[in-house]
Amino acid sequence: MRLTLKIALVILFGITLLLSLHSYQTVTRETKILKANLSREARLVGLVLRSMAADIWQRQGETAAQSFLKRAGQLVSDQQVRWVWLEGTPPTAQAPRVHGDQLAAARRGETVTIIAETADGRDFLFTYLPLKVPGGHIGAIEIGESLADLHGYVRESMNRSALLLVGMVASSLLLLWVAGSFWVGRPVKRLAEQAERMAGGDFTPGPDLKGHDEIAVLAGALDRMRGQLATAQQSDRERLEALEKLRHTERLATIGRLSAGMAHELGTPLNVIAGRAKLIARGSLPAEEVTRSATIIGEQAERMTAIMRQLLDFARRGTPRKVPVDLRQLMTGILELLGPVAGKQGVTTRLVPPTEPRVVMADGAQLQQVLINLAMNGLQAMPAGGDLEISLEPCGDASPPEAVKDRQGPWTVIAITDNGVGIAPDDLPHLFDPFFTTKEIGQGTGLGLSIAYGIVAEHGGWIDVESRPGQGSRFRVWLPRPAPPREAVDG
Protein backbone atom coordinates (compact mmCIF):
# COMPACT_ATOMS: atom_id res chain seq x y z
CA MET A 1 0.00 0.00 0.00
CA ARG A 2 2.92 2.36 0.43
CA LEU A 3 3.54 2.20 -3.33
CA THR A 4 -0.12 3.03 -3.99
CA LEU A 5 0.11 5.98 -1.60
CA LYS A 6 3.23 7.29 -3.32
CA ILE A 7 1.61 7.05 -6.74
CA ALA A 8 -1.56 8.71 -5.44
CA LEU A 9 0.39 11.59 -3.90
CA VAL A 10 2.32 12.19 -7.14
CA ILE A 11 -0.88 12.18 -9.20
CA LEU A 12 -2.70 14.42 -6.73
CA PHE A 13 0.19 16.85 -6.71
CA GLY A 14 -0.04 17.08 -10.49
CA ILE A 15 -3.83 17.53 -10.35
CA THR A 16 -3.52 20.21 -7.67
CA LEU A 17 -0.86 22.08 -9.63
CA LEU A 18 -2.84 22.00 -12.89
CA LEU A 19 -6.12 23.05 -11.24
CA SER A 20 -4.39 25.84 -9.35
CA LEU A 21 -2.79 27.18 -12.54
CA HIS A 22 -6.09 26.90 -14.41
CA SER A 23 -8.01 28.70 -11.65
CA TYR A 24 -5.43 31.47 -11.47
CA GLN A 25 -5.44 31.99 -15.22
CA THR A 26 -9.24 31.91 -15.36
CA VAL A 27 -9.66 34.47 -12.58
CA THR A 28 -6.95 36.68 -14.05
CA ARG A 29 -8.50 36.56 -17.52
CA GLU A 30 -12.04 37.29 -16.26
CA THR A 31 -10.73 40.11 -14.06
CA LYS A 32 -9.12 41.74 -17.07
CA ILE A 33 -12.33 41.34 -19.07
CA LEU A 34 -14.41 42.90 -16.28
CA LYS A 35 -11.99 45.80 -15.92
CA ALA A 36 -12.08 46.34 -19.68
CA ASN A 37 -15.89 46.30 -19.64
CA LEU A 38 -16.04 48.78 -16.76
CA SER A 39 -13.55 51.04 -18.51
CA ARG A 40 -15.49 50.85 -21.79
CA GLU A 41 -18.76 51.72 -20.06
CA ALA A 42 -17.13 54.62 -18.24
CA ARG A 43 -15.63 55.90 -21.50
CA LEU A 44 -19.01 55.73 -23.24
CA VAL A 45 -20.69 57.60 -20.39
CA GLY A 46 -17.84 60.07 -20.25
CA LEU A 47 -17.96 60.79 -23.99
CA VAL A 48 -21.65 61.64 -23.76
CA LEU A 49 -21.17 63.79 -20.66
CA ARG A 50 -18.11 65.54 -22.11
CA SER A 51 -19.99 66.49 -25.27
CA MET A 52 -22.94 67.83 -23.33
CA ALA A 53 -20.76 69.59 -20.75
CA ALA A 54 -18.70 71.27 -23.48
CA ASP A 55 -21.83 72.56 -25.14
CA ILE A 56 -23.27 73.87 -21.84
CA TRP A 57 -19.90 75.40 -20.91
CA GLN A 58 -19.76 77.18 -24.27
CA ARG A 59 -23.31 78.58 -24.05
CA GLN A 60 -24.01 79.01 -20.30
CA GLY A 61 -20.63 79.09 -18.62
CA GLU A 62 -18.63 77.08 -16.08
CA THR A 63 -21.19 77.09 -13.29
CA ALA A 64 -23.96 75.64 -15.42
CA ALA A 65 -21.61 72.96 -16.80
CA GLN A 66 -20.40 71.81 -13.35
CA SER A 67 -24.00 71.79 -12.07
CA PHE A 68 -24.92 69.57 -14.98
CA LEU A 69 -22.10 67.16 -14.15
CA LYS A 70 -23.12 67.12 -10.49
CA ARG A 71 -26.72 66.24 -11.36
CA ALA A 72 -25.51 63.57 -13.76
CA GLY A 73 -23.42 61.98 -10.99
CA GLN A 74 -26.45 61.86 -8.73
CA LEU A 75 -28.52 60.09 -11.39
CA VAL A 76 -25.91 57.31 -11.90
CA SER A 77 -25.93 55.20 -8.70
CA ASP A 78 -22.94 52.97 -9.39
CA GLN A 79 -20.59 55.68 -10.66
CA GLN A 80 -19.14 58.92 -9.32
CA VAL A 81 -19.00 61.85 -11.77
CA ARG A 82 -17.27 65.18 -11.14
CA TRP A 83 -15.16 67.86 -12.83
CA VAL A 84 -11.45 68.18 -12.01
CA TRP A 85 -8.72 70.51 -13.21
CA LEU A 86 -5.57 69.04 -14.72
CA GLU A 87 -3.46 72.25 -14.95
CA GLY A 88 -3.86 75.91 -14.29
CA THR A 89 -6.26 74.91 -11.51
CA PRO A 90 -8.12 77.78 -9.73
CA PRO A 91 -7.79 77.72 -5.93
CA THR A 92 -11.33 76.47 -5.38
CA ALA A 93 -11.28 73.73 -7.98
CA GLN A 94 -11.31 69.98 -7.15
CA ALA A 95 -8.08 68.03 -7.74
CA PRO A 96 -7.85 64.57 -9.34
CA ARG A 97 -7.70 61.56 -7.01
CA VAL A 98 -4.52 60.22 -8.63
CA HIS A 99 -0.97 61.51 -8.86
CA GLY A 100 -0.19 64.18 -11.34
CA ASP A 101 2.39 62.13 -13.24
CA GLN A 102 -0.29 59.48 -13.96
CA LEU A 103 -2.29 62.11 -15.86
CA ALA A 104 0.40 63.25 -18.25
CA ALA A 105 -1.37 61.60 -21.16
CA ALA A 106 -4.67 63.22 -20.14
CA ARG A 107 -3.02 66.65 -20.26
CA ARG A 108 -2.09 65.88 -23.85
CA GLY A 109 -5.77 65.24 -24.61
CA GLU A 110 -5.87 61.46 -24.27
CA THR A 111 -8.47 59.51 -22.26
CA VAL A 112 -6.84 57.76 -19.27
CA THR A 113 -8.09 54.86 -17.11
CA ILE A 114 -6.35 54.33 -13.76
CA ILE A 115 -6.97 52.05 -10.75
CA ALA A 116 -6.33 53.90 -7.49
CA GLU A 117 -7.19 53.73 -3.80
CA THR A 118 -9.31 56.46 -2.20
CA ALA A 119 -8.72 58.10 1.13
CA ASP A 120 -11.12 55.68 2.86
CA GLY A 121 -9.15 52.67 1.56
CA ARG A 122 -11.47 51.57 -1.25
CA ASP A 123 -10.27 50.60 -4.76
CA PHE A 124 -11.77 52.57 -7.67
CA LEU A 125 -11.44 52.54 -11.43
CA PHE A 126 -11.01 56.20 -12.47
CA THR A 127 -11.50 57.28 -16.07
CA TYR A 128 -10.42 60.80 -17.09
CA LEU A 129 -11.81 62.38 -20.27
CA PRO A 130 -9.88 65.65 -20.85
CA LEU A 131 -11.67 68.85 -21.97
CA LYS A 132 -10.09 72.17 -22.89
CA VAL A 133 -12.42 74.98 -21.80
CA PRO A 134 -12.55 78.63 -22.79
CA GLY A 135 -9.76 80.60 -21.14
CA GLY A 136 -7.05 78.02 -21.97
CA HIS A 137 -7.49 75.75 -18.90
CA ILE A 138 -7.51 71.96 -19.24
CA GLY A 139 -9.87 69.93 -17.08
CA ALA A 140 -11.37 66.49 -17.21
CA ILE A 141 -14.54 64.64 -16.40
CA GLU A 142 -13.60 62.12 -13.70
CA ILE A 143 -15.77 59.00 -13.63
CA GLY A 144 -15.04 56.69 -10.70
CA GLU A 145 -16.44 53.21 -10.29
CA SER A 146 -15.92 51.04 -7.18
CA LEU A 147 -14.12 47.73 -7.63
CA ALA A 148 -15.76 46.14 -4.57
CA ASP A 149 -18.01 43.98 -6.76
CA LEU A 150 -14.98 42.90 -8.80
CA HIS A 151 -13.05 41.90 -5.66
CA GLY A 152 -16.10 40.01 -4.44
CA TYR A 153 -16.30 38.15 -7.71
CA VAL A 154 -12.59 37.25 -7.47
CA ARG A 155 -13.05 35.93 -3.91
CA GLU A 156 -16.09 33.92 -4.93
CA SER A 157 -14.20 32.45 -7.89
CA MET A 158 -11.27 31.53 -5.70
CA ASN A 159 -13.58 29.89 -3.16
CA ARG A 160 -15.31 27.88 -5.90
CA SER A 161 -11.93 26.79 -7.26
CA ALA A 162 -10.75 25.80 -3.79
CA LEU A 163 -13.89 23.74 -3.15
CA LEU A 164 -13.56 22.11 -6.56
CA LEU A 165 -9.92 21.33 -5.86
CA VAL A 166 -10.68 19.79 -2.45
CA GLY A 167 -13.48 17.71 -3.93
CA MET A 168 -11.36 16.45 -6.79
CA VAL A 169 -8.43 15.65 -4.50
CA ALA A 170 -10.65 13.74 -2.07
CA SER A 171 -12.46 11.78 -4.79
CA SER A 172 -9.20 11.10 -6.68
CA LEU A 173 -7.51 9.92 -3.49
CA LEU A 174 -10.38 7.55 -2.74
CA LEU A 175 -10.46 6.18 -6.29
CA LEU A 176 -6.69 5.80 -6.44
CA TRP A 177 -6.66 4.07 -3.05
CA VAL A 178 -9.33 1.58 -4.09
CA ALA A 179 -7.85 0.99 -7.54
CA GLY A 180 -4.31 0.80 -6.18
CA SER A 181 -5.34 -1.74 -3.55
CA PHE A 182 -7.05 -3.90 -6.16
CA TRP A 183 -4.52 -3.61 -8.98
CA VAL A 184 -1.25 -3.04 -7.09
CA GLY A 185 -1.48 -3.62 -3.35
CA ARG A 186 -3.04 -7.09 -3.28
CA PRO A 187 -1.01 -8.57 -6.18
CA VAL A 188 2.27 -7.22 -4.78
CA LYS A 189 1.42 -8.60 -1.34
CA ARG A 190 0.75 -12.04 -2.84
CA LEU A 191 3.99 -11.91 -4.81
CA ALA A 192 5.90 -10.90 -1.66
CA GLU A 193 4.39 -13.85 0.21
CA GLN A 194 5.46 -16.18 -2.61
CA ALA A 195 8.99 -14.74 -2.50
CA GLU A 196 9.10 -15.35 1.27
CA ARG A 197 8.01 -18.96 0.74
CA MET A 198 10.69 -19.41 -1.91
CA ALA A 199 13.29 -17.97 0.46
CA GLY A 200 12.23 -20.63 2.98
CA GLY A 201 12.64 -23.43 0.40
CA ASP A 202 8.95 -23.84 -0.51
CA PHE A 203 8.70 -23.90 -4.33
CA THR A 204 4.99 -24.70 -4.65
CA PRO A 205 3.16 -22.70 -7.38
CA GLY A 206 2.18 -19.18 -6.35
CA PRO A 207 -0.76 -16.91 -7.29
CA ASP A 208 -2.00 -16.99 -10.89
CA LEU A 209 -2.11 -13.31 -11.88
CA LYS A 210 -3.53 -13.00 -15.36
CA GLY A 211 -3.22 -9.99 -17.61
CA HIS A 212 -0.64 -8.09 -19.59
CA ASP A 213 0.33 -5.35 -17.14
CA GLU A 214 3.64 -5.03 -15.32
CA ILE A 215 2.41 -6.91 -12.24
CA ALA A 216 1.37 -9.89 -14.37
CA VAL A 217 4.74 -9.82 -16.15
CA LEU A 218 6.52 -9.76 -12.78
CA ALA A 219 4.37 -12.64 -11.54
CA GLY A 220 5.23 -14.65 -14.64
CA ALA A 221 8.95 -13.99 -14.21
CA LEU A 222 8.75 -14.94 -10.52
CA ASP A 223 6.92 -18.15 -11.36
CA ARG A 224 9.53 -19.06 -13.97
CA MET A 225 12.26 -18.41 -11.40
CA ARG A 226 10.34 -20.59 -8.91
CA GLY A 227 10.24 -23.43 -11.44
CA GLN A 228 13.94 -23.08 -12.19
CA LEU A 229 14.81 -23.04 -8.48
CA ALA A 230 12.64 -26.10 -7.87
CA THR A 231 14.39 -27.90 -10.74
CA ALA A 232 17.78 -26.79 -9.45
CA GLN A 233 16.90 -27.94 -5.94
CA GLN A 234 15.86 -31.35 -7.27
CA SER A 235 19.02 -31.50 -9.39
CA ASP A 236 21.18 -30.57 -6.40
CA ARG A 237 19.47 -33.23 -4.30
CA GLU A 238 20.02 -35.83 -7.00
CA ARG A 239 23.61 -34.67 -7.49
CA LEU A 240 24.32 -34.93 -3.76
CA GLU A 241 22.73 -38.37 -3.62
CA ALA A 242 24.80 -39.51 -6.62
CA LEU A 243 27.95 -38.03 -5.09
CA GLU A 244 27.27 -39.80 -1.81
CA LYS A 245 26.75 -43.07 -3.69
CA LEU A 246 30.05 -42.55 -5.51
CA ARG A 247 31.78 -41.86 -2.21
CA HIS A 248 30.28 -44.98 -0.71
CA THR A 249 31.27 -47.01 -3.77
CA GLU A 250 34.82 -45.75 -3.51
CA ARG A 251 34.79 -46.57 0.20
CA LEU A 252 33.68 -50.12 -0.55
CA ALA A 253 36.39 -50.44 -3.21
CA THR A 254 38.95 -49.36 -0.63
CA ILE A 255 37.55 -51.93 1.77
CA GLY A 256 38.09 -54.57 -0.90
CA ARG A 257 41.74 -53.61 -1.13
CA LEU A 258 42.04 -53.53 2.66
CA SER A 259 40.39 -56.92 3.00
CA ALA A 260 43.12 -58.59 0.93
CA GLY A 261 45.70 -57.56 3.49
CA MET A 262 43.46 -58.29 6.45
CA ALA A 263 42.88 -61.85 5.32
CA HIS A 264 46.36 -62.70 6.52
CA GLU A 265 45.85 -60.60 9.68
CA LEU A 266 42.71 -62.60 10.50
CA GLY A 267 44.27 -65.91 9.49
CA THR A 268 46.89 -65.81 12.26
CA PRO A 269 44.45 -65.46 15.21
CA LEU A 270 42.14 -68.03 13.59
CA ASN A 271 45.00 -70.56 13.44
CA VAL A 272 45.85 -69.84 17.08
CA ILE A 273 42.19 -70.27 18.09
CA ALA A 274 41.90 -73.53 16.15
CA GLY A 275 45.12 -74.93 17.65
CA ARG A 276 44.15 -74.06 21.21
CA ALA A 277 40.67 -75.46 20.73
CA LYS A 278 42.12 -78.81 19.56
CA LEU A 279 44.39 -78.98 22.59
CA ILE A 280 41.45 -78.39 24.89
CA ALA A 281 39.35 -80.95 23.01
CA ARG A 282 41.91 -83.73 23.63
CA GLY A 283 41.32 -83.45 27.36
CA SER A 284 44.93 -84.16 28.22
CA LEU A 285 45.90 -80.62 29.27
CA PRO A 286 46.27 -79.74 32.91
CA ALA A 287 43.71 -77.33 34.34
CA GLU A 288 46.04 -74.35 34.28
CA GLU A 289 46.86 -74.96 30.56
CA VAL A 290 43.16 -75.17 29.74
CA THR A 291 42.63 -71.85 31.47
CA ARG A 292 45.58 -70.31 29.64
CA SER A 293 44.35 -71.61 26.26
CA ALA A 294 40.88 -70.24 26.89
CA THR A 295 42.38 -66.87 27.75
CA ILE A 296 44.44 -66.89 24.52
CA ILE A 297 41.33 -67.81 22.51
CA GLY A 298 39.45 -64.87 24.06
CA GLU A 299 42.29 -62.46 23.32
CA GLN A 300 42.53 -63.56 19.67
CA ALA A 301 38.73 -63.27 19.29
CA GLU A 302 38.83 -59.71 20.65
CA ARG A 303 41.66 -58.95 18.22
CA MET A 304 39.58 -60.15 15.26
CA THR A 305 36.53 -58.29 16.56
CA ALA A 306 38.50 -55.03 16.69
CA ILE A 307 39.76 -55.55 13.13
CA MET A 308 36.25 -56.23 11.83
CA ARG A 309 34.82 -53.28 13.75
CA GLN A 310 37.33 -50.96 12.08
CA LEU A 311 36.28 -52.23 8.66
CA LEU A 312 32.57 -51.89 9.47
CA ASP A 313 32.98 -48.37 10.83
CA PHE A 314 34.79 -47.36 7.68
CA ALA A 315 32.20 -48.98 5.37
CA ARG A 316 29.11 -47.69 7.20
CA ARG A 317 27.24 -44.84 5.50
CA GLY A 318 26.22 -42.07 7.86
CA THR A 319 24.71 -38.63 7.67
CA PRO A 320 27.47 -36.01 7.18
CA ARG A 321 27.95 -34.16 10.44
CA LYS A 322 30.77 -31.80 11.34
CA VAL A 323 31.97 -32.19 14.91
CA PRO A 324 35.30 -31.59 16.66
CA VAL A 325 37.70 -34.32 15.46
CA ASP A 326 41.01 -35.15 17.19
CA LEU A 327 43.40 -35.64 14.27
CA ARG A 328 45.97 -37.52 16.35
CA GLN A 329 43.41 -40.16 17.33
CA LEU A 330 42.06 -40.34 13.77
CA MET A 331 45.51 -40.83 12.25
CA THR A 332 46.39 -43.56 14.78
CA GLY A 333 43.25 -45.49 13.84
CA ILE A 334 44.05 -45.16 10.13
CA LEU A 335 47.53 -46.64 10.61
CA GLU A 336 46.05 -49.59 12.51
CA LEU A 337 43.59 -50.14 9.66
CA LEU A 338 46.35 -49.97 7.03
CA GLY A 339 48.81 -52.11 9.01
CA PRO A 340 47.92 -55.53 7.51
CA VAL A 341 47.96 -54.23 3.91
CA ALA A 342 51.23 -52.39 4.44
CA GLY A 343 52.82 -55.40 6.09
CA LYS A 344 51.80 -57.65 3.21
CA GLN A 345 53.51 -55.27 0.73
CA GLY A 346 56.58 -54.82 2.88
CA VAL A 347 55.81 -51.15 3.56
CA THR A 348 56.79 -49.56 6.83
CA THR A 349 54.21 -47.13 8.14
CA ARG A 350 55.10 -44.31 10.49
CA LEU A 351 53.06 -41.70 12.31
CA VAL A 352 54.54 -38.35 13.27
CA PRO A 353 52.09 -37.16 15.89
CA PRO A 354 51.73 -33.45 16.73
CA THR A 355 53.29 -32.10 19.89
CA GLU A 356 49.86 -30.93 21.07
CA PRO A 357 46.27 -32.05 20.42
CA ARG A 358 45.06 -30.83 17.02
CA VAL A 359 41.31 -30.53 16.52
CA VAL A 360 39.33 -29.58 13.40
CA MET A 361 35.62 -29.26 12.67
CA ALA A 362 34.92 -32.12 10.25
CA ASP A 363 32.90 -35.21 9.49
CA GLY A 364 35.14 -37.92 10.95
CA ALA A 365 34.02 -40.67 8.54
CA GLN A 366 34.51 -38.49 5.46
CA LEU A 367 37.92 -37.27 6.62
CA GLN A 368 38.91 -40.86 7.35
CA GLN A 369 37.91 -41.81 3.79
CA VAL A 370 40.11 -39.02 2.39
CA LEU A 371 43.19 -40.04 4.36
CA ILE A 372 42.76 -43.77 3.72
CA ASN A 373 42.33 -43.11 0.00
CA LEU A 374 45.55 -41.06 -0.13
CA ALA A 375 47.40 -43.64 1.96
CA MET A 376 46.19 -46.54 -0.22
CA ASN A 377 47.41 -44.66 -3.30
CA GLY A 378 50.79 -44.37 -1.58
CA LEU A 379 50.86 -48.10 -0.81
CA GLN A 380 50.00 -48.95 -4.43
CA ALA A 381 52.83 -46.68 -5.57
CA MET A 382 55.32 -48.90 -3.63
CA PRO A 383 54.82 -52.46 -4.97
CA ALA A 384 58.34 -53.44 -3.88
CA GLY A 385 58.03 -51.95 -0.39
CA GLY A 386 59.07 -48.66 1.10
CA ASP A 387 58.11 -46.10 3.72
CA LEU A 388 54.75 -44.38 4.26
CA GLU A 389 54.57 -41.46 6.67
CA ILE A 390 51.50 -39.63 7.98
CA SER A 391 52.32 -36.40 9.76
CA LEU A 392 50.78 -33.17 11.00
CA GLU A 393 52.71 -30.13 9.89
CA PRO A 394 52.82 -26.90 11.91
CA CYS A 395 49.86 -24.62 11.29
CA GLY A 396 50.56 -21.71 9.03
CA ASP A 397 49.27 -19.35 6.38
CA ALA A 398 49.12 -20.19 2.70
CA SER A 399 47.67 -18.84 -0.51
CA PRO A 400 44.59 -21.00 -1.18
CA PRO A 401 43.20 -21.75 -4.66
CA GLU A 402 40.57 -19.48 -6.22
CA ALA A 403 37.74 -21.77 -5.07
CA VAL A 404 38.49 -21.08 -1.38
CA LYS A 405 39.82 -17.52 -1.63
CA ASP A 406 37.17 -16.31 0.80
CA ARG A 407 38.59 -18.44 3.63
CA GLN A 408 41.36 -17.15 5.87
CA GLY A 409 44.14 -19.03 7.67
CA PRO A 410 45.75 -20.35 9.71
CA TRP A 411 45.42 -23.86 8.31
CA THR A 412 45.86 -27.37 9.68
CA VAL A 413 48.01 -29.48 7.32
CA ILE A 414 48.01 -33.29 7.16
CA ALA A 415 50.83 -34.71 5.01
CA ILE A 416 51.01 -38.25 3.56
CA THR A 417 54.44 -39.03 2.12
CA ASP A 418 55.67 -42.11 0.26
CA ASN A 419 58.87 -42.98 -1.62
CA GLY A 420 57.15 -44.81 -4.44
CA VAL A 421 57.26 -44.47 -8.23
CA GLY A 422 56.04 -40.85 -8.22
CA ILE A 423 53.81 -39.03 -10.69
CA ALA A 424 54.73 -37.69 -14.12
CA PRO A 425 54.69 -33.84 -14.38
CA ASP A 426 52.14 -33.96 -17.23
CA ASP A 427 49.73 -35.90 -15.04
CA LEU A 428 49.84 -33.58 -12.03
CA PRO A 429 47.38 -30.93 -13.38
CA HIS A 430 44.78 -33.67 -14.04
CA LEU A 431 45.30 -35.68 -10.90
CA PHE A 432 42.01 -34.63 -9.24
CA ASP A 433 39.89 -34.76 -12.42
CA PRO A 434 37.06 -37.34 -12.30
CA PHE A 435 37.87 -40.66 -13.98
CA PHE A 436 41.51 -39.71 -14.52
CA THR A 437 43.85 -42.50 -13.44
CA THR A 438 47.43 -43.59 -14.11
CA LYS A 439 46.75 -47.14 -12.88
CA GLU A 440 46.25 -50.19 -15.03
CA ILE A 441 42.75 -51.28 -16.06
CA GLY A 442 41.01 -52.86 -13.10
CA GLN A 443 43.30 -51.19 -10.58
CA GLY A 444 41.14 -48.08 -10.02
CA THR A 445 38.12 -46.06 -11.19
CA GLY A 446 39.78 -42.65 -11.32
CA LEU A 447 37.26 -41.29 -8.79
CA GLY A 448 39.18 -41.70 -5.53
CA LEU A 449 41.23 -38.49 -5.65
CA SER A 450 38.35 -36.51 -7.18
CA ILE A 451 36.01 -37.57 -4.37
CA ALA A 452 38.69 -36.88 -1.76
CA TYR A 453 39.23 -33.37 -3.15
CA GLY A 454 35.46 -32.73 -3.15
CA ILE A 455 35.17 -33.80 0.51
CA VAL A 456 38.03 -31.53 1.56
CA ALA A 457 36.54 -28.65 -0.48
CA GLU A 458 33.23 -29.08 1.35
CA HIS A 459 35.18 -28.70 4.58
CA GLY A 460 36.60 -25.39 3.32
CA GLY A 461 40.06 -26.66 2.35
CA TRP A 462 41.99 -28.17 -0.54
CA ILE A 463 44.60 -30.81 -1.42
CA ASP A 464 47.93 -30.20 -3.13
CA VAL A 465 50.63 -32.63 -4.24
CA GLU A 466 54.39 -32.61 -4.79
CA SER A 467 55.90 -35.47 -6.73
CA ARG A 468 58.89 -36.47 -8.82
CA PRO A 469 59.10 -39.65 -10.88
CA GLY A 470 61.11 -42.28 -9.04
CA GLN A 471 61.34 -40.22 -5.82
CA GLY A 472 57.84 -40.54 -4.35
CA SER A 473 54.94 -38.22 -3.69
CA ARG A 474 53.73 -35.97 -0.91
CA PHE A 475 50.01 -35.14 -0.59
CA ARG A 476 48.96 -32.38 1.79
CA VAL A 477 45.41 -31.89 3.05
CA TRP A 478 44.71 -28.26 4.08
CA LEU A 479 41.83 -27.77 6.52
CA PRO A 480 40.72 -24.53 8.18
CA ARG A 481 41.69 -24.35 11.80
CA PRO A 482 38.67 -23.64 14.05
CA ALA A 483 38.49 -20.24 15.72
CA PRO A 484 39.75 -20.14 19.29
CA PRO A 485 37.16 -20.10 22.11
CA ARG A 486 35.59 -16.71 22.82
CA GLU A 487 37.07 -16.61 26.29
CA ALA A 488 40.55 -17.03 24.87
CA VAL A 489 39.98 -14.23 22.37
CA ASP A 490 38.59 -11.90 25.01
CA GLY A 491 41.42 -12.78 27.37
Helix and strand topology:
Elements: H1 2-60, H2 62-75, E1 80-87, H3 104-107, E2 112-117, E3 123-132, E4 138-146, H4 148-199, H5 214-282, H6 287-315, E5 323-326, H7 327-345, E6 347-352, E7 359-362, H8 364-380, E8 386-396, E9 411-418, H9 448-458, E10 462-468, E11 472-480, H10 486-490
Parallel strand pairs: 6-8
Antiparallel strand pairs: 1-4, 2-3, 3-4, 5-7, 8-9, 9-11, 10-11
Helix pairs in contact: 1-2, 1-4, 4-5, 5-6, 5-7, 7-8, 8-9
Mean pLDDT: 77
The biggest beta sheet reads:
5 strands, mixed
Shape, per Cα inertia axes: rod-shaped
Please estimate the helix content: 55-70%
Structural class: alpha+beta
Number of helices: 10
Backbone CA Rg: 55 Å
How much beta, percentage-wise? Answer: 15-25%
In the sheet with the most strands, the strands line up as 6-8-9-11-10
SSE string: HHEHEEEHHHEHEEHEEHEEH
Number of strands: 11
Query: Unreliable segments (pLDDT under 50, ≥5 consecutive)?
Result: 487-491
Distance between the termini: 51 Å
